[in-house]
Specification:
By secondary structure, this protein is an alpha/beta fold. The chain is 35% helix and 14% strand. Strands 2-1-3-4-5 form a five-stranded parallel β-sheet, covered by helices on one side. Strand 1, helix 1 and strand 2 form a beta-alpha-beta unit. The longest helix has 13 residues. It is globular and about 45 Å long. The protein starts with a strand and ends with a helix.
């Protein structure tokens, strides 16, 4: 058993159509599409020796992973099990970033600055609105 596992909060689905991914990367991840399933999966994997979790998934049309509802259980599992969370959250607002600070150990932010990069990802936004935090 690996010491680090990859989890997708959206299974294999993503609202974006990035040509470099097309949901390829998330399709190989363990799908945990509800908070209960997320917690049960982490507890089961941790009991088998997994210590850390990359949490990712498909983004919405704004380029965000809907991670907020998972944060309370992440805090609980960090305290109870001592697991490590590495999250790929996409574009998030300042409020969500602040909420993530005590639940997540590593944040993999992807910065998108140019019109071409935004178009490549299929985002419906401008460079000015891509960085919200």
């Amino acid at each position: 058993m690996r010491k680090f596992a990859t989890l997708s909060l959206t299974g294999g689905s993503c609202a974006l159509s990035c040509s470099y991914c097309s949901s390829h990367y998330i399709s190989s991840m363990e799908g945990v599409m509800s908070v209960d399933e997320f917690e049960k999966t982490i507890r089961k994997m941790n009991a088998r020796g997994v210590k850390g979790f990359l949490v990712s998934g498909g983004f919405d049309k704004e380029g965000s992973l809907h991670v907020r509802k998972y944060l309370p259980v992440m805090r609980k599992l960090k305290n109870e099990l001592g697991v490590i969370f590495n999250v790929h959250p996409g574009v998030q607002g300042k409020d969500v970033v602040e909420e993530m600070s005590d639940a997540i150990d590593i944040v993999d932010f992807e910065f998108t600055f140019t019109e071409a990069e935004i178009k490549e990802k299929g985002l419906k936004r401008s460079p000015e609105t891509t960085s919200r935090c």
